[in-house]
Structure prediction request, 76 residues.
Amino acid sequence: TTFAFSLPSAARVTLAVHDLTGRRVSVVQDGELGAGAHSVRWNAQDGAGRALAAGLYFVRFSTPGLTRVERLVVLP
Prediction:
């Protein structure tokens, strides 16, 4: 999966995947990024490198001025 987003100015970006209970299972991006377009790839693995089970997850994208949560389905 590739997550694509644009930043109007440099900002700290956190992009994390959570399971249905709200537990964070993977951190895809956590750090300062410059202004402009960005894309971050994620291979459906948890923080220890294990493949996630098929199912519904939530992706949380956060910057100092914005937080957005979207659904993500991992297929077998």
About this structure: The chain has a mean pLDDT of 96.
